Amino acid sequence: MSPMFVPGPVDVAAEILAAQTRPMLPHRAKEFEAIFQRASDQARQLFYTQYRVFLTASSGTGLQEAFVRNFARENVLACINGAFANRWYEVAVSNGKAVDKVEVPWEQPITPELVAEALSERHYEVLTVVHNETSTGMQNPVKEIAAAAREASPETLICVDAVSSLGGAKIEMDAWGLDGVLTSSQKCLALPPGLGLGAVSDRALNYAASVPNRGWYFDLVRMEKHRLKDSTPATPAMSLIYALDVQLERILAEGLDARFERHSAMARRVQEWAEGRGLPVYAPSGYRSQTVTTIRNQTPRPVSEINQFLGMRGMRIANGYGALKDVTFRIAHMGETTMEQIEELLAALDELLA
Ligand SMILES: Cc1ncc(COP(=O)(O)O)c(C=O)c1O
């Protein structure tokens, strides 16, 4: 059965699966280094950054850990309005940081005003914020949050989790003044899971050099030394990097703006469909995700039954996440998903609801 409308791991094109079967090379060989360099260089276009993109043999959570370990000696301010933001908070706490929260109910966005207020009360080294909350289908206004944060506390490093939006929504790291942006391979980039991509500004990397106990595996200062030689301190996830190299070509051939527009057109269609059927979209208008829609399940059927029906048609949606598990369902419209597939899904759901 295809996981088509699940917010990761998403379907991977056959050509990309095949790219992984390329034979292994010694990872210090010039031939591999050329592939590594091309992939990490090209990846910068996805982040709209002139800085560097680290490729880690980890999922996105590894980079959540890397960012708090490298960019904070002591204190972090975590914005929380969903399950993954809360995970980042827990990651920071379990790495021994003193973490304060800007927390709002899950059905509300994080506002620039709240962030500015918290940052003006005391100094924080790092601000963490999730761009696209995969649990709630909320897109936080990161551009505005970053502008407010820069004004209230220019030294604070602004770190953004874009796990479920980078490559599906435009996130302009440099223009927005972000210091660290992380994502995972298995969502909008439509790759198999297991690769983290983390873009880091110069000022963040300079600060990291003064932070003790950065660990070893995720020490970004060490990684940068190796990256400058087109390599990594430990063995990279070579097959995934082969796949990334080919997938970046496909993504850039589609065109980033066209790709973002495809995602937002699918989002609009799904959201209009839900509201047209009397099913409320969880996130408020103006803050809805372009890549995944969380819908209150006011149908008479539990998600398991909906999926049983869809399964007979080779389709699958996702149940709610965390606290929203039983009361919402989620339709992902990310990666290589097309409007035709969305129409097919919505027609099947209409058939079921009728
Ligand atoms: C917004 C967000 N952040 C972090 C994560 C964790 O990413 P990973 O599973 O790649 O570690 C997820 C996973 O779904 C996510 O959606």
Question: Can you tag this structure with a few keywords?
Answer:
alpha/beta; binds pyridoxal-5'-phosphate; single chain; seven-stranded mixed β-sheet; 354 residues; globular
In this entry the ligands are: pyridoxal-5'-phosphate
Distance between the termini: 24 Å
Q: Are there runs of 5+ residues with pLDDT below 50, and where?
A: none
Count of helices?
A: 13
Q: Which strand order does the major sheet show?
A: 1-9-8-7-4-2-3
Order of helices and strands: HHEHEHEHEEEHEHEEHHHHEHEEH
Question: Which class do the helix and strand fractions yield?
Answer: alpha/beta
Beta content: 5-15%
Quaternary form: single chain
Number of strands: 12
Structure commentary:
The chain has 354 residues and is an alpha/beta fold. The chain has 13 helices and 12 strands. The chain has helices at 14-19, 30-47, 60-71, 83-94, 112-121, 142-152, 173-176, 202-208, 220-227, 238-254, 256-276, 303-311, 339-353; strands at residues 52-56, 75-80, 98-103, 126-130, 132-133, 138-139, 157-161, 180-184, 196-200, 292-296, 318-319, 328-332. Strands 1-9-8-7-4-2-3 form a 7-stranded mixed sheet, with helices on both faces. A 3-stranded antiparallel sheet has the order 10-12-11, with helices on one face. A two-stranded antiparallel ribbon has the order 5-6. Strand 5 and strand 6 (138-139) form a beta hairpin. Helix 10 (238-254) crosses helix 11 (256-276). The protein starts with 13 loop residues before the first helix and ends with a helix. Residues 8, 59-61, 84, 130, 134, 161, 163-164, 184 line the site of pyridoxal-5'-phosphate.
